[in-house]
Structures are given as C-alpha cells and as structure tokens.
Q: What sequence folds into this?
C-alpha cells in the first residue's frame, strides 16, 4: 500500500519540471515509498543532539583571487544551443515576461 | 475569478486611518572585476554572452569557486550597516526553474547569512532621523537577462520567444533585508526612499559598487502592509519587485498604502503577492502567480565549503572602512559652520561633494555654498538638470572665486564668466581673457567717466564736499553704468572721493 | 610479438620506454581489440580513434626527440562518459545530452592529455551514473566479459568491462555509492575511490556533489596507483579539492607488493558481512583475510553500528543533491529540446517535455524522490536527518581507525547477476551498494581488489578502506593481497576469463 499519493507524485513532478505519463505516475507512487522507509530508518538514530555533516571534509574559506580569465568564445558558448539568435540563446516564450 | 480593486483612498486619508509597515530588500551588484563563482570578467555593456565560462553558463561538470574579494565586500557592507559578521556561514541552493538562471538554481545564502542584526540611521529631508533595523545581508549571484521578442517582430514569424544573455549571470550580489520598519507613519514613503538612498551612498563610499540605479546596480523590492493601529498585529503584505529609482521607491509605497487602504475599507483582505511597479503612472499590478513560487527547496551548496571569516580579518576590514556618509555630513557641518537649515539644503540639493571639492580648490565654505546653492542651483533648475551634471567643475568654481577675491573681476562679471564656462568656452581665466571681461584697472578711462559723472551732478558733489558721503553712491552708479559694469566699484569709490577732495 | 593489449599499464609503459613498441602500435592494438570484441561487450559509447592515434603519434615523436615524458605517456586510456571531454561527445549515458560536444575539458582529462595518454573513447554507464548494472544507460547494456548474459556492475560498467576485456589497460570511473568498486568486483578488475577531494570533480557531470569522486579502473593495483597519481592532487577549480599533496601511492603499491604487512592492523567490519552475502563471496573473503594474516597483519573485528543506516541515509542525500544537479538539463542552453505535443509552447512546458522525454526511468525516479525530500516542510526530516547519519558514520570510522589501519569487507554481496534480473526492483538493485556506500558518506578512500571466483565461477572483490587522505594504505595492502593471491593462483585472475 503506497503512502505517497498519485497527486503528491504529480505535484512533485511538476516542481521538478518533468512531464510524466499516467503509468509513470502510478509506478512512482509505489516506488517512492523507499523514501518513506528510509526516513523511518534514519530517524531511529538522527536525534537532535547529533550535528549534521554537509561536507565530508572540513575545509573552509576556499577563495579565488578576483582576477579575470579568458571567457569562452561566443561560438563555443552557442555551439551546443538548441536555438540561438544574435549571439544569444533563443528560448520559448517565458510566461509572465512582457 | 476577478477581484475588482476598489478605488484608491487618498494617501492622507489612508495614513490617518492605517499604520503602514514597510520592509525593503535591496540587491546591490558588487563591482568586483570577476563574477561571484568564476573568473569571467564582468563589465557593463559587453556584447551578449562574451563574459561567460562553463561555470556561469551552468554547463554540465562546471563547479563554482568563491570570489574572495566579493566576500570582503559583503563584510564591508555588513560592517557599515552595523551588523554582526558570521563566524561561519554557508552558501545554499535556491532551486527554481527559469531560463535566465543557468543551473536552474541560484547559489545564495539561506539560514546562514554572512552578516546579520544591524541597523542604519536614515535622515529625512527635514533632518528627522529614523532607525532602520537590518535583519541580514547575504551573498548571492545575479541571473542573466531575457529579452522578449514579440510575435511579428521576431525571426520566427508569429512566435513569442525570448533571447537570453548570460553576461550578468553570476555577477556577485549582496541582498540586504530590513526587519519590518515601523513607526514611520505618514512618512513611510520618505523613509523608504531615504533608506535606499542612504544605502546607495554607502555602497559608493565603501567602493563596493558603482551603485548606479539606472543600470540596475541597485534594485529594491518594497514590502508594505497596513494595520489599524501601531499596536495591532502586522497586516498582510505585498512585495513590489524591482523598484529601481529613489522616486519610484517613494511612489510605490504611497501607491500601495492607498490601494491596500481601499481594500481594507471595503472589508476585503489584502492578498499576499508580488507586484510589479509601473514607472509611467506610479501604480503597481499583480505579478504572475506561480504555484511553486515559495518552494525553493533550499539546501547547503555541496560544491562550496563554509565561509568562516576570522575575527582578525573582520577587524582588519573594519579598520579600513572609510568615513561613512552620515559621519562625513556631521563632520563637514561642523567644519563649515553652516546653519542646520543651510546644511540640510546643501545635502538635499546633492551639493555636498561639490562644495567639499570647491572648498578643496581654495574657496571658503560660504563662497562655495553661495555659488552652488545660488547661481548654479538656479541654472540647474532652469535646465532641469542635477547640479553635478552642470558643465562646470568645483575646481573651476574655485578658480572663479579666486578671480573675484583678487579683484580681477567682480560678482556681476563673474556671472558672465559662468555663462562662458557653461557654454564650453574654457575655464574661467580663459573666458575672462577671451571675452575681455577683466575689471578696468587702468585709471585713465575710469577718471574720464568719473569726471563726466561729477560734471553731470554738481549738487551731489557739493553735498559730499559738505561732509555727507551718503549720496556718493549715485556717482559710483553712474560710473559703473558708463563702464558697463567692468569697473571695480571699490576703486571707483576711492577715485571719486579723491577727485571731490 | 607480445599482445600489447594483455600487458598491464606499467608493463606497457616500460615496453614503450624501452622502445620495444610504439604508442601508435599500442593504441592501434587496443582500437583493433575494441573493433573485435566491443560488438559483444558494448563497453564504449564513442570510440575516439583518430584523435587517440594522433596523440600516440605525437608521444612517439616526442619520445624519439628525447623529450622527458610522463611515466604513462603513450599508454591508452578509456574515460567514463560522465567526464566532459572537449570536442568529444559526453552524454553521461543520457538521451538528454545526445550530440552535445563540451567546449571544455574536465581537470582530470586535461591532466591525461598533458601526460600524453591517448584517449580511446568514452565508456558506457548507467544514465547520470544512477544504477549498479549499467542497464540504465540510454544507449544499451554493457555485457560482463566473464559472462555476456550478466551485468558488468554499475554505474561504471563500461570502464570496468573495457579493462576486463583488454580493450583498455586503464580507465576512469566515478564512484558516488560504489560505481567504481562494485563493477571492479564483478568484472575481476581493480577499482579505487580516492578520498573525497583527492581527485578534482571539475568536469564530472555531477550526480551527488558531496559523494561523487573520480578514480582509476585498472587490472593491477600498481596501475591504479600510477593513474591515481596522474589524475589526483589539488585543483583550484574544485572548492572541495584537498589542498595538500597526495601521499606517495606508487611507492606504497611497490612496497606492498613485497608482501610484508608486519604491524598492520586490519579491521573486519561486523556490519559488512553475513546476511545477504553469497557464501562464495564470504569464502573468498575469509581466504583473503588468511593471506593478510600470513603476510604479518593482525586481523581484528570492529563494529560500526551506524553502517546499518548508511543505505537509508544515502537514498535521501543522493537523490536530493541529484535533483538539483540535474535541474540544468532543461533544453534551453544545450542538449535535447523537446516541444510539448499539444498546448502552448512556453519555456516552462518545453522544459518539462524535454525532461520527460530525455530522462530515463531511474533518473526520473531519483529526481522526483530528491525533489520530494527537499520540498517544503520535508527538508529537516529528510535531508537534514540523513546528514546526521553521516556524522554518525564518520564517528564510527574514526573509532574504528583509532584501533586499526585499514577496514576490510567484501566489495559487493553477490557476483554479477543476469541482465534484467533486478531491473524492475530498485530496492534489490540498491542493495548491491550496501558495503561501498559508507565510504562515500564519510569521504574515506576505498579500493576493490579481485580476490577469486565464487562458486558460480564469477569474480568477487575484496574491499579495503582507509582513513581520509591515507589512500597510500589502500595501495600497500591491496598490492600485498594481490601478490599473495597471484602466487596462489600462479597467474592474474583475468587470465581465467573466457576468451571473447
């Protein structure tokens, strides 16, 4: 029995910008239970007194000097673009733009 | 569903019945040479997509590395705003899909800003000081620029599409967020404007940004809510995005006060939303409602390590902070000895720098103020220009004043010299020579004019001889008239009295 | 004449240095081998023949001119397709990157090119390195050279199979949860996951940034050390790169091969054996422990109780980071663009259509899962809690390494399973990584050394883990075990693989 509903999968897929077919939504609704199981497991030991580790190695203050390096040539920049015009990337209409 | 907005309530009415609370988020683009996370150069006006690297294009495999100078600038801003500087803080990813955000997440800071808990005293035009509390200042990166290409105008006939330039993507930003600004009452719009203006001045003095509003170096989002009384809980707020001039900040607040008051008067509720500001008429309108707008799925950026500024570094930066605008104003006020009202006028006219530079060029503060706040202010007004935009420099005003002080020209001639300088005829000295405006110092022609004047008014000559020097002015006036103002009035007086005996 | 494809990289390098063969000959021999067997193995997605031969010719010329060359100069190499290579396709096994030619090189590729190693091509992998069988590649399965009906492991099945099938003496892999070590184990090859930060990630198409690490895939421990020294070391373009120099790895491998492990303390991790492990896998494991004891090592058992939570933590952290890392694949700037079949063509809808069409099932599964784990209200409970488990695992490692010099376990619980067997059962698939994941969560280095065949006649691997930045220990112990095993067998394990 799935604990994550189809609606929830559809909501998350929209957030992740992935079109899913109905059968994919069905399948994922079942498979996403792994995350619910994982969290139940993790919670057994992830108590408030344990600090979180975001980076495997404790480095700090890794900075770059503010010195320019050559840019990519525009031809290279746009070579992989699905569509380009006037030195810029051409993309479909963006909703909310004027 | 359509919601009709009731007619606006007059501003004065609205603030009589409601207490406005503002909150301002200011983004400033830092003037570093390179971007926040890569070594692409950043400069205004470059050809599209000529300032990118795999990092700022968000290409697969590229990784960010923090620009140390940008961190230093962020700390400078934090210290100037009286903030605490974090012992350790992290970058976080703000995830949202948008074509001008190359990675589809913005690298920002979330719950660990580099600076927090500060304040800034802002001074209104009448000298009232309002303290604005700063919640946080954090580092992040700018997005690219979309240009909408409409229907028939575009290459793809009839299609609506956009062109994206990523030169701006990755430019370092610091975002400064206030706590709710309360207690401003009817002056909320002025406080909002003065705050943004004060920040702009600080960015410039700190030399962390060119801070040019018209180029979008400094952008403000203005939050506003109304409540019945200062004791009531905070009302629902709206956020008006990208308000990009001081005047617009003031207008946006005024408009939202009037609009929200109308909604509340009608017994309806204000919708929490983002709104757009319209320069043409000063109004705001709702932005597009995005279903996932608030779900940014922040998490610590795993590709970057924490920033932990040592206390030594922070103190080093603090020690090299320049004098801040408000402190400088206070110091100059004392040094120049202007009256409070005079000083305020100088500041409000944007003449502080000009007068300081003019004084540095040798003029007395009073003389410098007289020029900039008098004749030059009048001309700026005529031309609808800013003082600083007039075609004359403080050094030239200093030179002009020296010409007057040395007696080579008088005040009246000085105005003609100004005309010449402003007309592009050269510096004051050049104009004096070219236009032959030098005070007539050769006594020969003067004496001729004096003798003529004395002969024309024998009665006055008699009175003066009798010991009454009062009417001598009439003789001097006649001489000045005869010499078209080019004579030195003081010398004329001496010669007239000499002649009369 | 010697079959140049049968030599180890070190042997081939010596052959080239001695002038007994040219790099062009060596490169051509490998390209010929690829042409002969890759139709069956399908280890390569792209064969870079012309460019590889040009590099080889250049190295030969420089050698002839008496130039001082890198020890591996002229030795051909294969690179996993998740690593970007300028001018060469780099798809990461995904349709969404089909046809994309990167305009830049990964740092490790720059180093490979600078050292004069001809790049034979790009190897197959699970899409975006998500998988343990290479069955999730958008470009077809790779087959295990030991049994073409079985998986070569994953995600780096292509690199492991290429090396096992003598198509390349060296390959680059990446390891987020075991993607170098597990394929190594099931193909009878050596695979190393260096300390996190030990090899630059610049130019690796990221899956989970805090876990990903590139490393060597080879047939011998010494070859891995040679390659590791070439690609490793500080890179200012990767903020998580370790600033200190690498420990001497090749020296450690050569010393280990002498076979003396006196004074070495080896910890057997209680949690990484027993239930779920094939009997044959465990049998080989215990035989190897005996060999280590014979070499002078002291073997003790250590308990790392938090390792039982590693898989759960991994399946929260990995998808969360991946969901964000993969957001950039949206059809706007590079790669595939797909328009929706109906309705308005807006950027938002094109992004969703592109990602729906361009991503395979496993990628969609992990992106949706990760998005869910990070979405409003869940972050602390999911990602945040998993990061706490990471702390606990690091503490377990620290405690274990206080008592031992290295920790050991079987690399994978089973030998290679038949193609298709676990494809529809993600949980069973995930269990392959149970022994390898703790090292990724803690950032410590690990190696898999082939240590025999299970009862089914398929290879198994022996995993050695060392403290962070002590990668040299992997090579010392790995080389000692390798030499002890080979003296038992009388020949390298791969000589027992069936002819292709």
A:
């Amino acid at each position: 029995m799935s604990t994550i509903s189809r609606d929830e999968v559809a909501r998350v897929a929209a957030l992740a910008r992935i079109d899913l077919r109905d059968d994919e939504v069905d399948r994922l609704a079942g498979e996403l239970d792994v995350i619910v199981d994982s969290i139940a497991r993790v919670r057994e030991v992830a108590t408030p007194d344990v600090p979180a580790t975001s980076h495997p190695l404790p480095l700090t203050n890794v900075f770059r000097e503010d010195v320019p390096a050559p840019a990519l040539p525009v031809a290279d920049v746009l070579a992989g673009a699905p569509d380009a015009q006037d030195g810029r990337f051409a993309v479909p209409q963006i909703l909310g733009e004027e | 569903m359509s919601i009709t907005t009731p007619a606006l309530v007059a501003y004065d009415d609205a603030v009589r019945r409601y207490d406005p609370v503002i909150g301002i988020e200011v983004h400033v683009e830092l003037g570093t040479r390179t971007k926040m996370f890569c070594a692409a150069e950043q400069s205004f006006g470059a050809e599209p997509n000529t300032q990118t690297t795999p990092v700022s294009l968000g290409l697969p495999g590229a990784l960010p590395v923090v620009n140390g100078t940008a961190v230093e600038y962020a700390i400078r801003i934090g210290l100037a705003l009286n903030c605490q500087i974090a012992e350790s803080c992290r970058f976080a990813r703000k995830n949202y899909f948008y074509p001008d955000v190359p990675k589809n997440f913005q690298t920002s800071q979330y719950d660990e800003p580099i600076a927090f808990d500060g304040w800034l005293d802002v001074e209104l035009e009448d000298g009232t000081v309002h303290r604005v509390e700063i919640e946080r200042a954090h580092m992040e990166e700018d997005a690219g620029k979309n240009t909408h290409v409409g229907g028939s105008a575009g290459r793809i006939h009839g299609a609506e599409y956009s062109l994206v330039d990523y030169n701006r993507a990755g430019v370092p930003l610091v975002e400064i967020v206030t706590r709710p600004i309360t207690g401003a009452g009817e002056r909320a719009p002025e406080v909002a404007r003065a705050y943004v203006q004060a920040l702009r001045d600080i960015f410039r003095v700190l030399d962390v940004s060119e801070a040019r509003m018209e180029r979008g170096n400094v952008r403000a989002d203005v939050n506003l809510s109304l409540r019945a009384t200062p004791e009531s809980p905070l009302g629902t707020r709206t956020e008006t995005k990208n308000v990009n001039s001081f005047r617009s900040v003031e207008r946006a607040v005024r408009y939202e006060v009037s609009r929200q008051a109308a909604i509340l008067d009608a017994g309806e509720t204000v919708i929490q939303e983002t709104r757009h500001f319209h320069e043409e008429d000063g109004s705001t309108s709702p932005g597009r409602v995005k279903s996932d707008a608030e779900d940014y799925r922040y998490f610590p950026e795993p590709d970057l390590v924490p920033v932990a500024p040592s206390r030594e570094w922070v103190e080093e930066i603090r020690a090299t902070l320049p004098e801040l605008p408000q402190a400088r104003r206070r110091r100059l006020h004392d040094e120049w000895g202007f009256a409070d009202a005079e000083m305020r006028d100088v500041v409000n006219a944007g003449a502080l720098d000009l007068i300081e530079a003019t004084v540095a060029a040798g003029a007395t503060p009073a003389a410098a103020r007289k020029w900039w706040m008098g004749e030059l202010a009048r001309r700026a007004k005529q031309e609808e220009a800013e003082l600083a935009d007039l075609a004359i420099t403080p050094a030239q005003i200093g030179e002009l004043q020296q010409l007057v002080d040395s007696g080579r020209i008088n005040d009246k001639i000085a105005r003609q010299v100004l005309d010449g300088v402003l007309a592009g005829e050269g510096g004051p000295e050049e104009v004096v020579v070219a236009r032959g405006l030098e005070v007539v110092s050769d006594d020969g022609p003067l004496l001729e004019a004096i003798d003529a004047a004395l002969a024309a008014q024998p009665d006055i000559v008699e009175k003066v001889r009798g010991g009454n020097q009062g009417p001598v002015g009439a003789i001097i006036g006649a001489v000045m008239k005869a010499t078209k103002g080019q004579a030195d009035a003081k010398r004329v007086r001496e010669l007239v009295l000499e002649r009369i005996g | 004449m010697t079959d140049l494809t049968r030599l180890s990289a070190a042997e081939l390098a010596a052959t080239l240095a001695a002038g007994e063969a040219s790099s062009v000959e060596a490169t051509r021999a490998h390209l010929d081998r690829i042409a002969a067997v890759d139709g069956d193995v399908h280890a390569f997605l792209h064969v870079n023949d012309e460019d590889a031969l040009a590099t080889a010719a250049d190295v030969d010329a420089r050698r002839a001119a008496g130039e001082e060359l890198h020890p591996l100069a002229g030795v051909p190499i294969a690179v996993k397709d998740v690593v970007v290579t300028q001018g060469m396709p780099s798809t990461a096994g995904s349709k969404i990157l089909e046809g994309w030619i990167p305009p830049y090189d990964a740092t490790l590729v720059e180093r490979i090119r600078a050292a004069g190693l001809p790049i034979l091509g790009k190897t197959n992998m699970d899409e975006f390195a998500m998988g343990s069988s290479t069955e999730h590649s958008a470009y077809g399965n790779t087959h295990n050279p030991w049994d073409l009906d079985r998986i070569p492991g994953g995600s780096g099945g292509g690199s492991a199979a290429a090396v096992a099938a003598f198509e390349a003496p060296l390959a680059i892999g990446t390891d987020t949860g075991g993607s170098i070590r597990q394929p190594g184990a099931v193909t009878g090859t050596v695979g190393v996951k260096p300390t996190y930060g030990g090899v630059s990630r610049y130019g690796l198409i990221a899956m989970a940034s805090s876990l990903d690490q590139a490393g060597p895939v080879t047939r011998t421990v010494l070859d891995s050390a040679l390659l590791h020294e070439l690609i490793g070391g500080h890179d200012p373009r990767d903020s998580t790169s370790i600033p200190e120099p690498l420990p001497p790895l090749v020296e450690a491998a050569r010393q280990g091969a002498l076979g003396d492990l006196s004074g070495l303390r080896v910890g057997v991790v209680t949690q990484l054996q027993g239930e779920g492990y094939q009997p044959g896998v465990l049998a080989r494991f215990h035989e190897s422990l005996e060999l280590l004891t014979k070499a002078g090592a002291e073997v003790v058992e250590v308990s790392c109780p938090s390792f039982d939570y590693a898989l759960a933590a991994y399946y929260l952290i990995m998808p969360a980071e991946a969901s964000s890392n993969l957001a950039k694949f949206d059809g706007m700037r590079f790669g595939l663009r797909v328009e929706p079949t109906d309705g308005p063509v807006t950027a938002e809808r094109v992004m969703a259509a592109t990602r729906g069409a361009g991503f395979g099932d496993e990628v969609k599964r992990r992106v949706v899962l990760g998005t869910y784990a990070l979405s409003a209200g869940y972050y602390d409970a999911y990602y945040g809690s998993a990061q706490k488990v990471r702390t606990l695992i690091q503490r377990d490692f620290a405690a274990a390494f206080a008592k031992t010099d290295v920790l050991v376990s079987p690399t994978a619980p089973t030998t290679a399973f038949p193609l298709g067997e676990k494809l529809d059962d993600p949980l069973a698939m995930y269990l392959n990584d149970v022994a390898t994941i703790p090292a990724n969560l803690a950032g410590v280095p690990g190696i898999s050394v082939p240590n025999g065949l299970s009862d089914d006649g398929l290879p198994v691997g022996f995993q050695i883990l060392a403290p962070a930045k002590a990668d040299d220990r992997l090579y010392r112990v790995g080389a000692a075990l390798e030499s002890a095993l080979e003296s038992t067998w009388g020949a390298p394990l791969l000589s027992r693989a069936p002819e292709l």
